[in-house]
């Protein structure tokens, strides 16, 4: 399979205002794993075959399904052998899953261990409705607004996400000693929360930063954050695809 055979459509980027992301479909993974022992259904939504391959290796997901609202993407994904459901359908059948995992199309190299990590973190934190992952921020990315930073409390719950550098050193310079955290494009949600989530109206901080996850915090919900080692290759611009291809080639991933 051609590793870059991502199913794309020019108008598929419904969740992103950035047109540069339109050629990679926003991937959403719908997962379920409440009763791990019973093996609840877990659904993955992503139109990227590599994301799909990796998600299938996550032990917390026992069934990986691609969900999309686009018929062309659906056909393409069936083409590489994936089970596909249409998102309208998956919303109606929300009760089938306990946990929903969402892998952003701009972070296609997420390791299966990270998927398992956020699913387990959510299961272990009954007061949280949402879980996500962060990794170390590279100093050169400190002032890049496309790299979203995160600060957490001492129990690993998110305090805030920002496109600006947080925390901000008093000297107004990047502190090379501080372990800044970079947010990765993967989330999992409690399926009950997923029914409420779309109904929540946009919030001021969410709108100001253009960060969807702030809506969760601004409404007072708790979000669990796990720290992982991950070489982040967020795709924010077309040239990033080339970088990812090179990286995958070097690591024999393609
Ligand atoms: C700011 O960064 C410097 C290193 O660049 C560090 O020594 C200092 O503790 C940090 N915090 C404050 C408040 O200056």
UniProtKB/TrEMBL annotation:
- Key words of the record: Membrane, Nucleotidyltransferase, Transferase, Transmembrane, Transmembrane helix
Task: Give the transmembrane ranges.
Answer: 23-46
Q: Does the keyword Phosphoprotein apply?
A: no
Entry's Gene Ontology molecular function annotations: nucleotidyltransferase activity
Gene3D superfamilies assigned: Spore Coat Polysaccharide Biosynthesis Protein SpsA, Chain A
Keyword Membrane belongs to the record: yes
> Mind telling me which InterPro entries this protein's record contains?
Cytidylyl_trans, KdsB, Nucleotide-diphossugar_trans
Among Pfam families, the record links this protein to: CTP_transf_3
Instruction: Extract the NCBIfam families matched here.
Output: PRK05450.1-5
State the PANTHER family in the record.
Answer: 3-DEOXY-MANNO-OCTULOSONATE CYTIDYLYLTRANSFERASE (PTHR42866), 3-DEOXY-MANNO-OCTULOSONATE CYTIDYLYLTRANSFERASE, MITOCHONDRIAL (PTHR42866:SF2)
Protein name in UniProt: 3-deoxy-manno-octulosonate cytidylyltransferase
